[in-house]
Amino acid sequence: MIWLTDKIVFPDYKFTTKEGVLALGGDLSEERLIHAYKNGIFPWFSEGDPIVWYCPFKRMVLFADEIKVSKSMQKIINKNEFVITENKAFKEVIYNCKNIDRSDGFGTWITDDMQQAYINLHEKGIAKSIEVWLNDELVGGLYGLEVGSIFCGESMFSKVSNASKLAFIHLVKSKKYKLIDCQVYNDHLASLGAREIDRNTFLSILKSPTNI
Description:
Blueprint: E1 3-4, E2 21-25, H1 30-38, E3 42-43, E4 52-54, E5 58-63, H2 71-79, E6 83-86, H3 90-99, H4 112-123, E7 127-134, E8 137-147, E9 150-158, H5 163-173, E10 179-183, H6 187-190, E11 195-198, H7 199-206
Helix pairs in contact: 3-4
């Protein structure tokens, strides 16, 4: 396994393990995180562990024109009971993503350092959030990074049924992004039209001159 140094550089993709791990260590500086995401790499680790950098062989993505909105979800949207905003409560969104109880166990990977790192990126206009409100209460949302015309999703949460789906659909329907990077497979996103593509295809899209 390759350990990173102070230099803002990652090893060649050929060193990726079968689990999708490319490197360990380094830091969560603004410069390193931006460099990572521009090269299809993202951090995912638990509190107390070294930083683990991933670039999996299969990438879960959603092409904007492939979004699936079920009839039941469309009915919820048409009721206009929820208010959806953008970048109005980033700190609250990431706090909820970090602390909400999850049956899938994916809530604990947002460490204190990671939380602060993405808040710093938000203050630079790089990290973005979508918020879903019901009766003036934040009940759902998501956050991620903007890399050209690609939105690199990091996490989402729901306090009421369908709130995170509403945030995701709003993100896609905003037409600001050609592609949503969902990183790894899950059934929730597959139901909305996301699918796996191979890493080389994803990287070619990410590094395409049109993705600016």
